[in-house]
Amino acid sequence: xxxxxxxxxxxxxxxxxxxLPDIVFMLLFFFMTVTVMKDSSxxxxxxxxxxxEIKKLEKKDRVITxxxxxxxxxxxxxxxxxxxxxxxxxxxxPSDVGDFILMERAKKAQELQNVLTxxxxxxxxxxxxxxxxxKEELRKVNALKVNYTTVSGDAFTNLE
Amino acid sequence: MTNRDEVPKVNAGSMADIAFLxxxxxxxxxxxxxxxxxxxxxxxxxxxxxxxxxxxxxxxILINGEGALLVDDEQVDLADLRKLTIAFLDNGGASQExxxxxxxxxxxxxxxxxxxxxxxxxxxxxNRETSYGTYISVQNExxxxxxxxxxxxxxxxxxRLYTDMEKAYRSPETPVSVKEDLKPKIKHIQDLFPxxxxxxxxx
Lengths: 160, 203
Hints:
The complex is a heterodimer of chains A (about 160) and B (about 200). Chain A has helices at about 20-35, 75-80, 95-105, 130-140, and strands at about 35, 50, 55, 65-70, 85, 90, 115-120, 145-150. With about 160 residues, chain A is an alpha/beta fold. Chain A has a domain at about 50-155: Nucleotidyltransferase, domain 5 (2-Layer Sandwich). Chain A has a 6-stranded mixed sheet, with helices on one face. The longest helix of chain A is centred in the first third of the chain and has 15 residues, at about 20-35. Chain B has helices spanning about 15-30, 80-90, 130-160, 160-170, 175-190, and strands at about 30, 35-40, 60-65, 70, 75, 120-125, 195-200. Chain B is elongated and about 100 Å long. The chains are: A alpha/beta (about 160), B alpha/beta (about 200). At the A-B interface, helix 1, strand 1, strand 3, strand 7 and helix 4 of A face helix 1, strand 1, strand 2, helix 3 and helix 4 of B.
């Protein structure tokens, strides 16, 4: 009898893991194609309201985003608990919105400058005063296409 | 004796680890964004005051700071808003001799309500203290009322829902020939029920 006994027939052969990298790469490419990079970190609370009659914003390069909401706890000490506007990475006043839109518009390609949409991502607990101010500023710079960004769902749940 | 022509194999065993590392990086740094919402157009700044509109062609909706709704001087529930708006838009009160007569309307034909969908204006007044959630709910119901009416007409004329047609038109996957076909149809439905929604703020 030899020292290295011949394997018994009942033993399962080891599963080949050679194709594991391919599977993982497939997953990787899937995530790379379906996701977009976060461009700014949120400094405000942003619980979007829900609505059912929504339209998708198809092209990401034609969208300018404005966030509105209460500052998150770490900023609340400095900026208070009233709803604030966040443009890119900083807090701003309604009067800055016009300049911001013009600046963002100038960054876009010439042929896109007339088809831009402003996406308003507003916390559902914000009040309409600040939204009216923003809308007034948007009208001044002729950025008339807006999209009240919401999550898809039943609109009646906003009322709680 | 070594064979010089043979290239040694690179060990690919750690490939999976590298790919996992990349995968986890992308998982952490990205988000599948919820970019959908209510599309609206703001009115352009107009130096000229708008032409006065007869009162019967306006549906005034007021939202107060507590989120209560007042439609036509009557307090209503949000659940009834869509029904009320449809009744107002679809009224078609103009008489048959009138050039504005609406032959596709199925409403009450009440002479005290709107003349035709083209003339009807929904006026939304909000308060500075109104919460955004309430405002979006109201907007959603109003857009929903228009969509319901447009769907009805699209179903009658083209055997298809208006919302589907619009979605297909906006989708980048739709071929150009289909889009060309859809464009006049969508335009026609929009002309039947134009979205006349005026917004103002009251303190």
